[in-house]
# Entry
Amino acid sequence: MVSLTPWLSMPPWAGSLPWTEAVVLVMAFVWGATLGSFVNVVAYRVPRGESVVTGSSRCPACGVAIRPRDNIPVVGWLLLGGRCRSCRSPISSRYILVEAVCGLIAAAVAAAELVDGRSLPWLAPASGQTLDRMLMHHDLRPLAAWALHACMLIMLVARSLLGEGHAGGRAARIAVLLILLATVALPSIGPPGMDPAGGPWPESPRLRAATACLAGSAAGWLLARMTAAANAGSLAVLGAAVGWQTVTVVAVVTAIVRSLGSRATRRPGAWFDPLPAVATAAIVCWRPIRTACMLAWP
Ligand SMILES: [Zn+2]
# Structure
């Protein structure tokens, strides 16, 4: 990654173009779309009781194994024109849609946290030099924060595709535990610690981060029970990663969007799950919204 910088600054006409930023966003999209391709496998196989690890992907109509190059996220579906290579039966557009959405989520979080440097935890000062810090000074904490948030959001997409019946409380508990371990290892990527520093909260940054992570997870779980915004596991995972402040806003907005949506379509519950979109918007836009609020009500 460090060697990218001299190579990218080589073409003289490209001096004014933000090449590093563009490469970072494209790489983030490809990485997210690849995870989205795995989300498709999970959403197809888990309800059928099949393993998500073993066995190659097959066409549901003719059973022929899908070739690796047809399995490239987004591109594979486009090159095939949305049809199976051997039997020409149509492949659902949901596959390319899920891959593109997961790619866009990863790229949007990268734009906010890696390019713009306005990452959660939202109490940390903003920095416009996040990419420089990563490339020149090998500070990989923004990359870790981005990976944590993008993985967590893509997991929310998978959970909303599986629906209530296969929501998987065990997967949510494992995810909360992994987020807790990541937060204890790197306190600056987790939810904001309980301020003020000298309050009743632990002095050690690791303990403070762990407390904030568990408090966020518990808040998400309780909010899911209270608002019916999403299933308890999904909000518990979100709360562990972003803290009780953000998960509260996301739960309330999601509940409102959900009730407006089911009123408009007259299909309670069957409407699409707004949680991944609202959670992504909260992570990407938290700092600008907070700045706007502070300008309006100083
Ligand atoms: Zn086929």
Remarks:
- The pocket of zinc ion is lined by residues 59, 61-62, 64, 84, 86-87, 89 (CB under 6 Å).
- The chain has a mean pLDDT of 82.
- The CA atoms of residues 260 and 293 lie 25 Å apart.
- DSSP finds eleven helices and no strands in the chain.
